């Protein structure tokens, strides 16, 4: 019995000792990067989120609807390439608000975000309507796009 207790205490001491040795150092603050990304003192910044919702127009013609969706995706790619859109994607489940997808635009200006969202052919056609919301998130968010391209095998 004493041997079991001794063994258990020794094992616990070893685990605690190992855990203390694995302290993770805080990354060094990079002022140049923070400034280039527009970060505040918390590493955050303001963006504009766009919630895309089912619009008033329903298009039954599958070919026309396919063309609109192709244009919708192409427009997202164009805005991303221009650094205007940093997050975009559809919702995977139907919901009571009729949200279909969302964008996060790299601007705090609702007016600018509205100009950008109106370049979407599906919005222009009334298939999607939208709501603009101010959002506060990590200033490093735009950096993921570079890596997203590295892990994408196919584009829809």
Automatic annotation (TrEMBL):
Listed Pfam families: YCII
Entry-linked InterPro entries: Dimeric_a/b-barrel, YCII
Keyword Ion transport annotated: no
Domain YCII-related: from-to ranges: 64-135
Keywords assigned: Signal
UniProt entry tagged with the keyword Signal: yes
Signal sequence extent: 1-19
The family this protein is said to belong to: Belongs to the YciI family.
Protein name: YCII-related domain-containing protein
Originating organism: Chryseobacterium piperi
Species lineage: Bacteria, Pseudomonadati, Bacteroidota, Flavobacteriia, Flavobacteriales
């Amino acid at each position: 019995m004493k041997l079991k207790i001794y063994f258990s205490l020794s094992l616990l001491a070893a685990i605690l000792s190992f855990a203390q040795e694995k302290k993770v150092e805080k990354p060094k603050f990079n002022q140049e990067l923070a400034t280039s990304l527009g970060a505040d003192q918390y590493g955050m910044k303001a963006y504009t989120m766009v919630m895309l919702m089912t619009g008033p127009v329903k298009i039954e013609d599958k070919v026309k609807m396919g063309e609109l969706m192709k244009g919708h995706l192409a427009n997202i790619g164009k805005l991303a390439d221009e650094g205007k859109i940093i997050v975009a994607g559809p919702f995977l489940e139907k919901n009571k608000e009729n949200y279909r997808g969302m964008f996060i635009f790299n601007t705090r200006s609702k007016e600018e975000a509205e100009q950008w969202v109106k370049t979407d052919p599906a919005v222009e056609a009334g298939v999607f309507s939208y709501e603009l919301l101010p959002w506060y998130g990590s200033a490093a968010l735009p950096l993921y796009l570079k890596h997203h391209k590295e892990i994408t095998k196919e584009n829809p």
